[in-house]
Amino acid sequence: xxxxxxxxxxxxxxxxxxxxxxxxxxxxxxxxxxxxxxxxxxxxxxxxxxxxxxxxxxxxxxxxxxxxxxxxxxxxxxxxxxxxxxxxxxxxxxxxxxxxxxxxxxxxxxxxxxxxxxxxxxxxxxxxxxxxxxxxxxxxxxxxxxxxxxxxxxxxxxxxxxxxxxxxxxxxxxxxxxxxxxxxxxxxxxxxx
Length: 193
What we know:
Blueprint: H1 2-10, E1 11-13, E2 22-38, E3 41-57, E4 62-77, E5 80-98, E6 103-122, E7 125-148, E8 151-156, E9 160-167, E10 173-179, E11 186-191
Parallel strand pairs: 1-11
Antiparallel strand pairs: 1-2, 2-3, 3-4, 4-5, 5-6, 6-7, 7-8, 7-9, 8-11, 9-10
């Protein structure tokens, strides 16, 4: 069961090579659930993210489009609870290189605005609310395997990126740089229209 949940969490629905003048639609769906015992209490974390994309291939190698991410997470520990909602809106640019009729490699450059809202509860009572705005930018290389008539699989093993969040009410500023090649993996399904 854990292997199935891991595969589902890593599943990525995106789109790969298409011909000039085509519209591409895709996105990511991620779900994770964790449970651990911590000093006589149980710690539970559940998260869900949906990230649709729409693009236009204006050249045999170049695609430009927009991306959106909406997600939520909930953490429960010892009767206390934290809820986080995430929203991202941005654009992406993809460069694809066909190696032969079956294989292509591509890299996505994405950048945009992000927003995060969180609420902390103790014994069911709201004790803290935070809101933050920021930006993100990232590069993700991947491999596309064409199975039949534009339907295929995408494989990615990480990426490079930077993101920031600036919290309201004189809250702390957050920034993150990541380089996670070989540390994460995603498998996706794609279809060209």
